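Bumping my old thread because nobody answered last time. Still need a sequence for this structure:
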């Protein structure tokens, strides 16, 4: 299995999508001789699918075709060398994956044919068991459908633990603690901007372009920050490095 689960698509000052992870992504492309990818853009609500596909082509140096051009989207997944899943609105993305009949084809492509999956922001969220730890608003439906479950633990992308002046609502830490209190058998990995989890084969690694760590939220346990994935060794079926 090959998963790149990125908190976000760009860092401040980046000129290219996924620029902070280019070294790892392009090394994987070269090792697997990947020259094309299918792009799943449904999370983008106020943007142009084809324009984003062109941005990815320029950034990654491979041919990128948006799945919305396919008459039978599941067939595009069956023929894909690589799957790219955009950020945007997680609720809308997950609903569209179900409506387009793409959940099982993506699962089979990644698990059985070992097609690499690259998802950022919303695309990272839907790779987990559910989208319950997204930061997004349900713009169309409030029904929480299962997600792809490619990664076995909930992720909260765009994680920030700063206290915003004048904000009187709950902090992100408080919201994630609430999730764990209501779901005490589940954990949440909180990824800051410019960071990612990478599954390659049976190994799980972590990278942060800014040298920052990730946090793990568990019910009844103190939340801590980590810089390697050994903290997840009891939660995931991968070798953590």
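Sorry it took so long. Here it is:
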């Amino acid at each position: 299995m090959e998963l790149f689960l990125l908190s976000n698509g760009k860092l401040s000052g980046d000129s290219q999508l996924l620029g902070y992870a280019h070294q790892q992504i392009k090394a994987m492309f070269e090792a697997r001789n990947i020259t094309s990818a299918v792009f799943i853009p449904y999370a983008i609500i106020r943007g142009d699918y084809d324009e984003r596909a062109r941005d990815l082509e320029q950034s990654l140096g491979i041919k990128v075709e948006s799945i919305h051009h396919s008459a039978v989207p599941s067939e595009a997944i069956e023929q894909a060398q690589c799957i790219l899943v955009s950020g945007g609105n997680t609720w809308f993305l997950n609903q569209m994956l179900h409506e387009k009949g793409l959940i099982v084809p993506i699962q089979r492509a990644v698990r059985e044919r070992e097609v690499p999956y690259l998802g950022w922001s919303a695309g990272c969220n839907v790779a987990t068991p559910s989208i319950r730890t997204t930061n997004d608003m349900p713009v169309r439906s409030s029904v929480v459908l299962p997600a792809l479950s490619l990664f076995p633990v909930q992720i909260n992308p765009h994680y920030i633990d700063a206290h915003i002046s004048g904000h009187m609502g709950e902090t992100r830490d408080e919201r994630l603690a609430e999730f764990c209190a209501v779901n005490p058998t589940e954990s949440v990995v909180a990824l800051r901007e410019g960071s990612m989890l990478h599954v390659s084969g049976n190994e799980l690694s972590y990278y942060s372009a800014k040298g920052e760590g990730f946090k793990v939220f568990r019910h009844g346990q103190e939340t801590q920050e980590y810089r390697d994935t050994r903290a997840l060794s009891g939660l995931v079926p991968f070798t953590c490095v």
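The mean pLDDT is 94. Let me know if any region looks off to you.
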